[in-house]
Write a structure and sequence with these properties.
This protein has 20 helices and eleven strands. The chain is of the alpha/beta class. The radius of gyration is 22 Å and the shape is globular.
Length: 475
């Protein structure tokens, strides 16, 4: 359970680390790594000052032991210059059981010397999964430390998306909402952000530049905002998007219309500023896959020719890493190797991990009954008139992660360990298929680690004094 007071937290931390002069001082590295198991619970579920202090300890431990949030920008721009090829970076949306799931990913990465991987969460997921940036980053750092992973942690804000409906109702308010999210993300250690203004593409306009106009104008404005607020020494990796996932397949003319307009606008708004390092396109997939009435997934045909052509143009003409594939985790296993073969720089994976958890035989029937009961009591309005039970579950179950977060975290190890073993195998398979095995040294060669030490949290005016006092009492 969580600590009730700062005094109790500092007392239990004392054998592993001390807080002196507003800084964290390691006492015993092995004990500090083991302490992540309870520190992360305080960071997720703790109240007030306890939660704030736990998150600070995890962050500072990461700075000390080399598990540090970083930008993948330089690594991606190196690909645009031809420094490497034939690999696709997995961007993994972890929605639930974040700490245990990330530990499984780090175990798979350590076994394969993987450095090129991203943990990400979308604007929408932050809401229904109850996973804000500071908590998400705490999970990633704690999991890395617990598994002995050192090096850059690429943590990404996925689909920082402008809502078409909200933008139409009050454009300034919606833009400010995304800027506020960018501020929160940067403060939380998200040094990779995918801007998604593709919702405002208007395919009813006559020409491609006209169709993409609002998209590139707003993407450039948000890019300039990031550049003005990113930490000193860090060039945040930015992504743009030219076609909303689930829509028509992207084409070369759309890519050029967006990029030419974007580069021109960004040069006006932020002269000399770095632009996007990758571009998301639509090739025939959809988020979550298409579910049949019996719960099986419909076969999706990806246009790999589009993926290859647009990736090549993104590199050759605009110096970017290439094109990004969304909505891929529910594809047949044999398809994943093709992403690396066809030149995709990044692929986004989410639903597959979620379904590994939900479908695992170790999950108690009572837990799944509770999940379905929540759906029927709170999300029944999302059920289509012709949806089967399985279609409704597949479509809406992701929205139970937040409300049932503690229920999942409180499952016994007899439940969690086999689930995590299955996730570890899944991560390992994806790392191998996407050809990111043995990328640790390559990532280190093209990534800057910038230490960022944070002051003791100021959410409680007396917290720093209380911490120092508690440390003395722990002696």
């Amino acid at each position: 359970m969580e600590h009730e007071t700062v005094h109790a937290l500092v007392h239990d931390l004392a054998p592993a680390a001390r807080i002196e002069g507003g800084a964290l001082h390691m006492v015993d590295e092995a004990k500090l790594r083991l302490a992540m198991d309870w520190l992360i619970r305080d960071a997720v579920f703790g109240a007030g000052p306890v939660q704030a202090l736990a998150r600070w300890v995890i962050w500072e431990a990461g700075q000390t032991l080399g598990a540090m949030p970083a930008s993948i920008n330089d690594f991606y721009m190196a690909r645009g210059k031809g420094a490497y090829s034939d690999l696709t970076v997995p961007a993994m949306n972890i929605r639930g059981l974040a700490y245990d799931s990330m530990r499984a990913a780090f175990r798979a990465a350590n076994a394969r010397h993987v450095g090129a991987m991203i943990f990400e969460i979308a604007r929408s997921e932050m809401g229904y999964c109850n996973l804000r940036p500071a908590e998400y980053t705490s999970n990633a750092i704690a999991a890395a430390l617990r598994e002995g992973f050192a090096g850059p942690l690429f943590i990404q804000g996925d689909h920082f998306q402008l809502s078409l409906k909200a933008y139409g109702k009050d454009a300034a308010k919606e833009m400010q909402a995304v800027k506020d999210l960018i501020d929160e993300a940067l403060d939380g250690g998200f040094f990779n952000i995918d801007i998604d203004s593709s919702t405002l593409v208007d395919i009813n306009r006559a020409t491609y530049p006209e169709q993409q106009e609002q998209n590139y104008l707003l993407c450039a404005e948000l890019s300039a905002y990031v550049r003005a607020h990113e930490p000193q020494g860090i060039t945040v990796s930015l992504g743009g998007e030219i076609g909303e996932v689930g829509g028509h397949n992207s084409n070369v003319d759309e890519l050029r219309a967006f990029m030419d307009g974007y580069n021109r606008t960004l040069a006006q708004k932020a002269p000399g500023a770095a632009g996007i390092s990758k571009i998301s396109i639509q090739t025939g997939t959809s988020h979550g896959g298409v579910v049949m009435a019996d719960g099986s997934l419909a076969q999706i045909k990806i246009d790999f020719d589009v993926l290859r052509e647009l990736s090549n143009i993104a590199r050759a003409e605009y110096g970017m890493a290439g094109a990004v594939q969304h909505g891929a985790s529910t594809l047949p296993a044999e398809m994943f190797r093709k992403f690396a073969d066809e030149g995709a720089c990044e692929v986004h994976l989410a639903t597959g991990f979620q379904m590994t958890v939900f479908n695992h035989p170790a999950v108690p029937a009572a837990m799944m009954d509770k999940t379905r009961a929540y759906l029927n009591a709170n999300l029944i309005g999302e059920r289509g008139p012709k949806d089967s039970d399985e279609q409704f579950f597949h479509k809406s179950s992701k929205k139970t992660w937040g409300p049932l977060k503690r229920d999942w975290w409180d499952q016994p190890r007899s439940v969690l360990d086999p689930i995590c073993a299955a996730l570890e195998a899944q991560f390992g398979f994806l790392f191998e298929q996407l050809n990111v095995v043995n990328t640790r040294d390559l990532v280190a060669q093209h990534t800057r680690l910038v230490p960022i030490h944070k002051p003791l949290p100021a959410s409680d005016a007396e917290l720093a004094e209380v911490v120092e006092m508690a440390t003395d009492l722990a002696d």
